[in-house]
Please model this.
Amino acid sequence: MYVRAMRKLGIEVLTIGPRWKGRYSHPEYDDIPDIEIPRGSPVWRTNFLTDVSQVDQVWSFDNKFRLRGKLGDGPAVIYCTDPHVVDAKFYLREYDYKFSAQKIPGTSWIPLAYDSDLHPCFNNINNISRPIDVCFIGMTGAGYENRRAGLKVLDNLELNNFISSGLVFEEYYRPYNKAKIAYNWSSSFDIPMRFFEGMAMGCCVVTNRIPFLDELGFVEGVHYLGFSNIGELEKVVLEALNSGRWQEVAKKGNLAVQEHSYPNRVIKMLERIDYKRG
Model:
């Protein structure tokens, strides 16, 4: 997402790393790095860097590679998406600037965001245009027991729900654009992409209560609806649907989330490292 955002801003980006072949990968959308490094390589190797000695900056995203020396005269920057993905204490010490999507000691907090191309809002926010009551697309396996319990409650309400996993790109944003409510349960109580994406796609986001949302300008009951347990989840969803309140919350949330785009996040990080574009 951040590479896409940088390129949108007119920044020339050279990507280095393994080709993504994840669980949810679509061959037609595979992002092939400019310089491909075999998966599992333990360090940056000199022969992979011969063509990039003049780069202005080196950025690493949730990367298990360790830096070996500096590249050119520019700073080395790391962005940690999830605290459980990167061993922060070990990897952060090698970088000049350290950013994280979650609040990690020793890093600057730059939350996740949404991509206007991948999370568009092209359907009106009303009952006719959005026949799906609740939409959720995401992981429900081991470690997500609370999330699954919430989904079971929603299923028992006999609503018109769309529940799936492993969908990306159009398969992801089309169901959400037909949905009134975007359900979220953050098992780690961090702020996931799904929070911003649901708002961006015109849904009323219903989420378990997560710390620090107020610091981003989001107000519960205005921009999203919160719950703390299964019983409250059921009550919040039914009230929002039956009263039509979901529409007001979805519209205000959609307006509030506009500034939380990936290009804006990139601009903020570049300002902190005093990078002059162009």
